[in-house]
Amino acid sequence: MEQVYIFTLSALFLLAIFDLVVGVSNDAVNFLNSAFSSRAARLRTIMIVASIGVGIGAIFSNGMMEIAKKGIFNPEMFYFEELMVIFAAVMLADIVLLDFFNTMGLPTSTTISIVFELLGASVGVAFVKELKNKDRLLHVIDGIRAYINTDKVGQVILAIFASVFIAFVVGSFVQFITRIIFTFNFERRMRYFSGIVGGIALTALSYFLVIKGLSGLSFMHKEQLDWIDQHTGVLLGIFFVIFFLLGQLLYWCKVSIWRVVILSGTFALAMAFAGNDLVNFIGVPVAAWDSFQLWEAAGTPDHSLTMEELRENAQTPQLFLIIAGTLMILTIWFSKKALNVMQTEMKLSQQGGGKERFEATELSRGIVRFSVWVTSMIEALIPKRTLRYIHSRFEKPEEEKNDSIDKPAYDVIRAAINLVVSSSLIAVGTSLKLPLSTTYVTFMVAMGTSLADRAWGRESAVFRVAGVFNVIGGWFLTAGAAFVMGLGIAVILFYGEIYGLITMIFLVGYLVVRNAIAYRRKQRKEKEAQKKRFNKEDLITISGIMKLSSQNIAGAVQTIDELYREVIDNLAVENHKGLKACKKRAKALTSDIEDLKSDIYYFIRSIDDSSVTSSKFYILILDYLHSMSNSISFIADTSYTHVDNNHKKLKYNHIRNLKTISEKMQQQFQKILEILNVSMYSNSTTQLIKDVSSIKDEISELIEKQIRDIRTTESSPKNTKLYFSLLLETRVLIRSIINLMTLFKNFKDQFRTMTNEK
Hints:
The protein is an all-alpha fold.
């Protein structure tokens, strides 16, 4: 039996490594995002500062893992073998859950996940135990309450709602006041405010480190912490004076106090995260290790030893903390999923425009519509002079043309406020014994500051609000999913024993590997798509625009060529799966071209004055490409719907005609690619346009023939509708190709004439 538990412990510690990697990948956004988004320093510098904070926090952590031992369940109610089932279930569920959120790029709370997994697993084991002893379900449910620390669970649930609302409101208020004081042209005001900013911001961060950070470090004894608690006011006063003088000194040395605050806040949050949230990743295997040692020392059967001794505090071995700290640092540096999660928060809080990460929903539209109405009512009550003054404080400086694409998501003021407010709220929550989630607080503060900073304009508000609700919904999903998964896996392990554990380990491994492969494929596709997108330096000249346009046309033409042939071939054999794949690819093509159209603003701002005349050309190119993508998307969608609804197969002659058109179009598509590759635009393009036009004429003849056939022969209405739809939309597609190539030829000729004149 001892060998079984040794295997279980080994599995738990192995799972803890995976759990730590996926957990840190999600939580890294809490302390990295503000510095990353504002570009307060080089990426390497930010990572080094965060790594030092994580290393100190992990290595000097007090190692207290109470939440895993006694925070959620009452250990005296469980036997040793039952606790091992609970711990194994929690680790397995946590890996799957956090890896899912990382893959989706959504930040969630590792604290909430571990709490509800412990709750679910405990309830599952308690339910099985009570079911053996009770004959009525109500008695079973009533008996389960004795196994759970209901007061602690209630605190956690309350903290979810509290942290979301409080963080958003406080973040909005502080950012609004700060922006009123400093505006977006804050550099010239720092002559008078640098010392004050340093005094207030760095003192707040120091308070956070003292209250939240130092309390989690091993070298801090109870007497020292009590003394700090009694003299907090005096310490804060001393800190303010010191940091006030430091802030003024930094101004004289021409060092931005805002950047110092951001890096200090990054360090503080990273250290506190490692020192206090380490339990979320290694608390369970450490608790299992302690349980195993207690069982070995007792020398009693595993099914008769209750674990009340887990209520006693015990230090985690220093080796565990060092290994955990090392893995956390490595994850920060090398985890691509961590960057994916950061991108979500950055997109929702960025000051400028660009592609939005989330789609608008009816709920977000309704909230924005209501907010606009409320704002208009409030503004009607405020004196116009006051309104003009407030609006003037939010006026942004004119952007340089060349900085319109690669600028930071927001400025250093907002980044500093994000870190200072988050740290302060977490510190206050800790002092009041409220288990606030670091993830919830930092995210909602960032959302509140972005709202107050007017980053959520009329153009982006519906998308940002939808994104926030997606993330918040994910948080509640975390709690529910963690509970259900913990309960289900615990029941499986309880009855399956060692065989159930082995099966679940392989299942979890399979899911994680599959997600990793799917994520890498997605990233590869995004990289390929990114290569096709314009670079700022390539768009400032006419030749660069010509090159870009050629690439876009070639890529779209090749995709449309493949899709058209595949749609017709799959339609001929009623291949439902193949048509569904074509529909998905066509939608992706339309989305890619939409992204290019969304960047037109940045394109026009980036080009030099000599290339302004080419703007119309580029816009028309994108419009024709968009029309072509819409046509192929319609063809794919219509064909899929026909087969999906199990309508009659198209007639043989209809399929034959469509395949003939497909083959001829394929020939012309290949000619287009050859023209674009060798830059033979004049004569070759003229002949191409004639050949494509002949296909359009042929389609017109097929339409007339079908009209005659309907009058003389019996035909299916659905088949007729599909056939006409495909022919008509193919004509639209061909018309767009003709217009596009004509435009490209004319512009090329114009460009050649301009070059010769020079």
